[in-house]
Amino acid sequence: xxxxxxxxxxxxxxxxxxxxxxxxxxxxxxxxxxxxxxxxxxxxxxxxxxxxxxxxxxxxxxxxxxxxxxxxxxxxxxxxxxxxxxxxxxxxxxxxxxxxxxxxxxxxxxxxxxxxxxxxxxxxxxxxxxxxxxxxxxxxxxxxxxxxxxxxxxxxxxxxxxxxxxxxxxxxxxxxxxxxxxxxxxxxxxxxxxxxxxxxxxxxxxxxxxxxxxx
Length: 215
What we know:
It is a single chain. By secondary structure, this protein is α+β, with helices and mostly antiparallel strands. It has six helices and eight strands; from the N terminus they run αααββββαβαβββα. It is 46% helix and 17% strand.
């Protein structure tokens, strides 16, 4: 259920708002329907009043859950304008070795490029999903590349003590691979063509669906 909400934040927000509205309307309808009787017998107000906090709490919880799903997975749509275009040759510094690398060096393999930042909560929560994806598909030719324009020392401090296996790099320029929202993910096929460009975090299942046709 959590993954589904993550992939459909607008729907989640709509459901939450709808639930809150139904709760509010139900309370109003109940009040109107028994209002005359309550005026005649004031003691009947007591159980009715007791239900109001419960209704309000239920509506508030539904709203918060929907908003949290939308915040965790902020935009969640495909950045269509870049799909089916040749990927640029991004130059970056490998965080492990300190050596200069290039995206073109991975030609012949499927590359998932994830633009992220250490301060981005959805980015941080997405990394285990990317690690799992890489572990499951690297034998079939998948490369997972995390790229950030944050200083290398900032990134190294973030990964210190972790068992990260995906490739990580620093780049100060990303011509042709913009990041309108963090994180932004690109799926590039073996011929170097961008097949998908996603805004916002994704669960493992969504990543797997995106890369499998090109492996």
